[in-house]
Amino acid sequence: MSEFRHHRRVEFAETDLAGIVHFSMIFRYMEEAEHAMWRAAGLSINDRSNDLGWPRVSAACEFRNPLFFEDEFEVWVRLAAERTRALDYEFTLVRGETVIAVGTMTSVCVRKTADGRMKATEVPLDIVSKLRGR
Amino acid sequence: MSEFRHHRRVEFAETDLAGIVHFSMIFRYMEEAEHAMWRAAGLSINDRSNDLGWPRVSAACEFRNPLFFEDEFEVWVRLAAERTRALDYEFTLVRGETVIAVGTMTSVCVRKTADGRMKATEVPLDIVSKLRGR
Amino acid sequence: MSEFRHHRRVEFAETDLAGIVHFSMIFRYMEEAEHAMWRAAGLSINDRSNDLGWPRVSAACEFRNPLFFEDEFEVWVRLAAERTRALDYEFTLVRGETVIAVGTMTSVCVRKTADGRMKATEVPLDIVSKLRGR
Amino acid sequence: MSEFRHHRRVEFAETDLAGIVHFSMIFRYMEEAEHAMWRAAGLSINDRSNDLGWPRVSAACEFRNPLFFEDEFEVWVRLAAERTRALDYEFTLVRGETVIAVGTMTSVCVRKTADGRMKATEVPLDIVSKLRGR
Q1: Which of A132, B34, B93, D6 is the most buried (most CB within 10 A)?
Q2: Cα angle vertex C105, ends A68, C124, to 5°?
Q3: pLDDT tens-digit profile of D17-41?
């Protein structure tokens, strides 16, 4: 599978008083790219036709260069390791030739039970297949 | 009913590149004060023991003075008009003697139906009574 | 001047526990459309080649219908009244045939002085001309 | 140095459609605790009396349990490694006995130069001393 590329522009409210994008937004940009990759695969992370959820269990990022208001950039995302009950994503944010950030996120697949709890379950094969087959 | 006063400090991520709090945050501060007023009245805006919801139907604000990182301020909130199916709030944000903003918000009382829709309903009298009786 | 239309999709982090877009985001969507209109006119709201700023003095919105995760919508924005030292914007958010929200925002034109203060000044004619002439 | 403890309550706009706090907010909570620790040490991360800045170079978090609307929780933060040009923080978020998340963040000390660039510099000893001496 080639990586998925999501295009974005920095909005005003995403900057802070240091004049650059707040670091917490970088994680949101990564998530937006992840969800766009799901849509490109004909899926939705919030599919009301099943009872699956995808809570994050970890996220990490190295911030290499600042990102400024109105900058256009891309988030490259790809599925990393094959795991039974989790999806590992790898991300690279780039503005032209400049790497802004590199990060990883892991979500586990859970089934929502009738009492509102979440129970880890296996990632459905057709979802992995669609995400990889895009 | 005297007005309810909510104390808050500006966080870094709430500022923008202009060096001041982003105007959209002012609306969030007003909402935080509203919810704190509900808690002070022994209520929660998200009470899972009933099927009521409180979607906003309008919000407006005049921004009089900028608010800066680490500023401490208060949001004064009070219930305005008595209406059957809605709650009207009035807000004033102050930092010391300086008025930062004045605003209004209106929420309607809705009952969530089995099919996920929302239907306007009368505001329960005990809720109004508790909010006014604080 | 015809109105400017800005296309957008709802992101996950923009929703709240009620399952819909948080009302404060609607104001951010309106701002994004405003800034996109400036770019379409060859301008930037944050032009480092001058010392102008555009703080908001008011914002108001009526919320007519909820907006959901992954919904695609448009923000229509147009310059309303002609005023000497301020820009008045009118906004309509629509998803297909459904009006989500209608709003207004006013920004004043300020010149940043050497001591960091802001002083109201006249809106440069070429900016109005470009915004109207798009 | 004992760890610093920052108390917080979850606000409505910080939740998402899954009914829990969005993971990007966890990073903001960690930052809020960091800045509160600076204030407790008589410092500000945005001290206008010097030309220092503290951009993040990395952030990571494991999310152990969900956090819900109106939950009260604490963020425990402490300075980890001693390094010449950077500050390493360790964070634990707890709600009562439940660990919500554990994380780390690293900021580098930079001096802002006249042309707007940032140059890594040594962390002033009095800052480390005050942060550790609280």
Answers
A1: B93
A2: 70
A3: 999 999 999 999 999 999 999 999 9
CA-to-CA distance for A9 and C43, rounded, in angstroms? 16
Q: In what order do the strands lie in the sheet with B110-112?
A: B52-53, B110-112, B118-120
Strands C56-63 and B56-63, by their bridges, are: antiparallel
Per-residue tokens: A80: 């990393």
**pLDDT tens digits, C81-126:** 778 999 999 999 999 999 999 999 999 999 988 777 889 999 999 9
Residue D44: closest CA among B29, A35, B9: B9
Give residue C49's Cα distance to chain centre: 21
For D14, the closest chain B residue by CA position comes to B28
Non-local (6+) Cβ contacts of B41 within 8 A are B130, B131, B133, B134
A86 contact partners, CB below 8 Å, separation of at least 6: A57, A106, A107, A108, A109, A123
Burial class (CB in 10 A: 0-12, 13-18, 19+), B58: buried
Beta-carbon contacts of residue B10 (< 8 Å; ≥ 6 apart): B21, B67, B68, B69, B70, B71, B72, B73
Q: From CA B94, how far away is CA B97, in angstroms rounded?
A: 7
Residue A126 burial (C-beta neighbours within 10 Å; 0-12, 13-18, 19+): exposed
Please list every residue in chain D whose beta carbon sits closer than 8 Å to the beta carbon of residue A59: 23, 60-61, 63
Give the global pTM: 0.96
Candidates A10, A11, A15, A17: best to mutate against B (most CBs of B within 10 A) is A17
